[in-house]
C-alpha cells in the first residue's frame, strides 16, 4: 500500500549540520505559527538523540531567534518514573532547554507521573483538550525519535497502544522495557502540521528502512503508523542513518 502523504528527506553528512538544520526549521515554523495564531506548539521527543538539539536551541546561536514566551511545550511520551528521575524525558528537557531559557511553567505541559499511569494519560488528554479547545488538535511540530526496534514515542511493537483509534493519550505497561509508558497515540500525532523524525547513527539504518517501507506491518514496525493526515512528514537524518534509504 503506497503512502499518500508528503514526506521530505533532509540528509546531512555531519550531525552538527543536521541539528542546526532542524533548529532552523523549528525557528522558521515558530515564526509562521506565532504570526498565524499567536502561539507555537512544539512536542518534544525523549531518549538521547534530541538532547543536543535542545541544547542548541537554548544556546546563544538560537535563543534570541524565537519568541519563547509564545511557545508551548508538550511531550510525545514519558517514562512512568518521577519527573526527577534520570530516565525522565521531562528532566532531560528541563535541564537542556527549559531551565537555560527560563521557560515559564505554564508553558510546559508535562505528563504527571505522580498519578497512576491511566490517570496521568487521562489528565494529559484533558490538558490537550483545554489547550486546543474546540479546535482540531493540530500541533505545529511533533519531534519524534526512532528506536532500533522501530518504535517511536512509546508506540512499541505488539502493544495495544498501536490500535488506539480515539484517545489522544494512552498508558500501557511495556514488557520490552519493563516499565509503564504514557504516550501520544497515532491519531493525534498524525494530525500535526509537521512531524519531524530526528535520527542519526549507523545503528538506526535498518530501523529507518523498515519504518519507510511500503510493506506495512504496524505491529512489527510501529513507526509506520506515522502518516500525517494533512501535514508533512520530515526525516532529519545523518548519512550513516540514511545509508539504506538514500
Ligand atoms: O522516551 C523515549 O525513549 C523516546 O520517546 C523514544 O521514542 C526515543 O525517541 C527512541 O527510543 C530513540 O531513542 P534514542 O534517541 O535514545 O535512540
Automatic annotation (TrEMBL):
Entry keywords, A to Z: Hydrolase
Keyword Hydrolase in annotation: yes
Keyword hit for Ion transport: no
Glucosamine/galactosamine-6-phosphate isomerase domain location: 14-235
E.C. designation(s): 3.1.1.31
Pathway: Carbohydrate degradation; pentose phosphate pathway; D-ribulose 5-phosphate from D-glucose 6-phosphate (oxidative stage): step 2/3
Catalytic reactions on record: 6-phospho-D-glucono-1,5-lactone + H2O = 6-phospho-D-gluconate + H(+)
Enzyme class: hydrolase
Annotated GO MF terms: 6-phosphogluconolactonase activity
Functional description taken from the UniProt entry: Hydrolysis of 6-phosphogluconolactone to 6-phosphogluconate.
Family (UniProt): Belongs to the glucosamine/galactosamine-6-phosphate isomerase family. 6-phosphogluconolactonase subfamily.
Protein name per its UniProtKB record: 6-phosphogluconolactonase
Organism in which the protein naturally occurs: Reichenbachiella agarivorans
Upper taxonomic lineage: Bacteria, Pseudomonadati, Bacteroidota, Cytophagia, Cytophagales
Amino acid at each position: 500500500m503506497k503512502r499518500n502523504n508528503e514526506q521530505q528527506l533532509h540528509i546531512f553528512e555531519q550531525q552538527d549540520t543536521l541539528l542546526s538544520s532542524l533548529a532552523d526549521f523549528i525557528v522558521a515554523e515558530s515564526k509562521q505559527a506565532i504570526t498565524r495564531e499567536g502561539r507555537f506548539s512544539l512536542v518534544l521527543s525523549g531518549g538521547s538523540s534530541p538532547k543536543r538539539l535542545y541544547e542548541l536551541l537554548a544556546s546563544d546561536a538560537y535563543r534570541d531567534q524565537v519568541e519563547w514566551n509564545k511557545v508551548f511545550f508538550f511531550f510525545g511520551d514519558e517514562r512512568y518514573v518521577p519527573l526527577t528521575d534520570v530516565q525522565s524525558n521531562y528532566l532531560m528537557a528541563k535541564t537542556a532547554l527549559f531551565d537555560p531559557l527560563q521557560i515559564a511553567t505554564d508553558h510546559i505541559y508535562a505528563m504527571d507521573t505522580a498519578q497512576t499511569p491511566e490517570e496521568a494519560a487521562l489528565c494529559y488528554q484533558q490538558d490537550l483538550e483545554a489547550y486546543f479547545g474546540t479546535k482540531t488538535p493540530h500541533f505545529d511540530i511533533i519531534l519524534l525519535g526512532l528506536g532500533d526496534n522501530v518504535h517511536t514515542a512509546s508506540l512499541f511493537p505488539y502493544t495495544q497502544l498501536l490500535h488506539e483509534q480515539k484517545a489522544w493519550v494512552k498508558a500501557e505497561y511495556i514488557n520490552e522495557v519493563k516499565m509503564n509508558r504514557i504516550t501520544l497515540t497515532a491519531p493525534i500525532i498524525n494530525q500535526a502540521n509537521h512531524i519531524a523524525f530526528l535520527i542519526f547513527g549507523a545503528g538506526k539504518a535498518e530501523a529507518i528502512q523498515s519504518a519507510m517501507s511500503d510493506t506495512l506491518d504496524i505491529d512489527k514496525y510501529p513507526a509506520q503508523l506515522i502518516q500525517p493526515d494533512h501535514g508533512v512528514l520530515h526525516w532529519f537524518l545523518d548519512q550513516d542513518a540514511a545509508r539504506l534509504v538514500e
